[in-house]
Amino acid sequence: MGRSTxxxxxxxxxxxxxxxxxxxxxxxxxxPQIREIPVEVLTPSELTEIKAGKLDExxxxxxxAPEQEKPVAVNQPAPPQESAAxxxxxxxxxxxxxxxxxxVEQPADDAVPPMPEEKAEAPAPEPAPEPETQxxxxxxxxxxxxxxxxxxxxxxxxxxxxPSPNTDSDFSTDRLAALLNKVPDGGEQASLDxxxxxxxxxxxxxxxxxxxxxxxxxxxxLRARIAQCWNPxxxxxxxxxxxxxxxxxxxxDGTLVGxxxxxxxxxxxxxxxxxxxxxxxxxxxxxxxxPLEKYSLWRDLILNxxxxxxxxxx
Amino acid sequence: MxxxxxxDLSIVTLFWNAHIIVKLVMIGLVLASVWSWAIIIEKFFLFxxxxxxxxxxxxxxxxxxxLDELYQALSQRRNVSLAAMFVAAMREWKRSLEQSSRxxxxxxxxxxxxxxxxxxxxxxxxxxxxxxxATVGSTAPFVGLFGTVWGIMTAFQSIAASKNTNLAVxxxxxxxxxxxxxxxxxxxxxxxxxxNKFNTDVARLAARMDGFADxxxxxxxxxxxxx
Lengths: 314, 227
Description:
The structure holds 2 protein chains of 2 kinds. By secondary structure, chain A is of the alpha+beta class. Chain A has a domain at 230-313: Fusion Protein Consisting Of Minor Coat Protein, Glycine Rich Linker, Tola, And A His Tag, Chain: A, Domain 2, CATH 3.30.1150.10. Chain A contains 11 helices and 6 strands. Chain A has helices at 2-22, 44-52, 107-110, 131-134, 151-155, 173-181, 186-189, 216-229, 271-285, 295-298, 307-313, and strands at 35-39, 206-207, 213-214, 244-250, 256-262, 300-305. Chain A has a 4-stranded mixed beta sheet with strand order 1-6-4-5. Chain B has helices spanning 11-16, 20-61, 67-75, 81-99, 105-127, 130-162, 167-226. Chain A binds chain B through residues 1, 4-5, 7-9, 11-12, 19-20, 23-26, 28-29, 31, 264-267, and chain B through 1, 5-6, 8-13, 30, 33-35, 37-42, 45, 163-166.
């Protein structure tokens, strides 16, 4: 019997060892990443400021290499987090429609790359983003200039040598940059170093990896629409901090699929009411008018309902 | 408030984070598993040996060899099953012959008794410790379930304490609780399977010994009547 016990104990020890070695622990489930769109309630004055853009606003984009005198930074309106302008060779004045993908990671490198093909049609974008074009399917004005960026690169916000206006670049590019840079709330989000994994900081001009972008205008339109329908509950204690994170799925015609789910929780007794109001708002607003060809981007959305803006505004 | 998805759920952490009662349940179940596997290994070899020796004895017994010679050969060593019965019966037969020159009907009665006793002794030897397998097979799931219930109670208490229904608060407790059930089933399933197998084997060997006892009694009875 003693020998059998020894064999049995050894077997168990071996199995335990095997479990420890082979199964080091459950690998964390990698949930699909979902874009988040903050819904904030803005006062009309804020809204108009955003829409119009301030002409006197200083361009705070760190994209322009300051030591270069000739090149001017142009922020494209649609994907606001990219496209620094490299130094254009001044002799090349004719526009070249072929974009050049340059997988360069560091902004410092951007100053160096030899850019034979430079495009001169950059000044084409109309300076102020019009509200009408926001929801339109038409890609942003500089779409043809946009380089076919590898998705990771786009998320890293790596600036890459793209179009640069070199024909009479002194004309209004400073102003242009300032205008385009004034994409709503996008000032700091357009900065180079915004971490790609931080979805909250990276809501504008999002890419889903296949080259599609949700333009800031489209996101803005959706946000404004939901904010209209949203009637936050009258505040209780700390109701201003009740941020509701709502996840909704949409059909191609812009109607909701199923029931939107509340993604976060909060012990506050008012949270239920806040969550219900958010769900009601999302229900009332459907169908949402969004560009159909970007359906993969807005099929599954997360909305942050933050009533603190409402109270501040009110 | 994003839950920490990197909660370590490896087996070791599950064990160390468990409540003391759940820990005891887990240790007990592992010990039960070790002991039942020891019994299973022991019985496996015992049954294989017994079956092999029974086959060999039957072959020799029916080969026409003289029973006296066979008795001489076997009585020196330790025997199991049929051989043990044969030796016991032959010893009783010899003893009876020493007392009275002529065997009587009482001799046969005594030989039957001796063989019955040997059969029951052999069966008892084969069946020993099998009851532990039966016990483990029937109670280990319940013991594991007890650990699970206790662990889930703890998990719910931690929900109440943190006032947070976040899955990250509940998940480790429930995982550790379910681990107790897994251990219980791990111990119980082999115990039940092998208990049933060994029970069938014991019944088969006992039937074989009963049959041999009847046949040998018939041979001796013929011998007695012949005088």
